Amino acid sequence: MTVGLQTHMDRYQKCIEICNKCMVECEFCLDACLHEPDVANRIECMEMLKDCIEICSVSAKYMAGNSQFASQICQLCADICDACAAECNEFKDNHCQTCAQVCRDCATECRNMVQS
């Protein structure tokens, strides 16, 4: 039993870690955006950040639980992370640019996991 557990955790570990990192980075970015002087211009971005936070959390949970739906969830996560990166990239603050890069990294890793 431990061998099977180790195998699926080995397969998912890197993706779980980047999903968790992305979730935290998006939380940080969302909070920072709420305190920017142009907060009204960031509504769509902040809504996308919330979606990204949720899907990254769900993806990590599905992978950790070795769900049969982990690949489908991770594909959706990759798509949402790409969309979030595009939104964040519209703003030049360090927190948005960092978040955009982490989202792109997460999208790449989710796609890699789906293909493995």
TrEMBL record:
Q: Where would one find coiled-coil regions in this protein?
A: none
InterPro entries the UniProt entry points to = Csp_YhjQ, YHJQ-like
Source domain of life is Bacteria
Query: What parts of the sequence cross the membrane?
Result: none
Q: What is this protein called in UniProt? A: Four-helix bundle copper-binding protein
In its UniProt entry, the species of origin is given as Iocasia fonsfrigidae
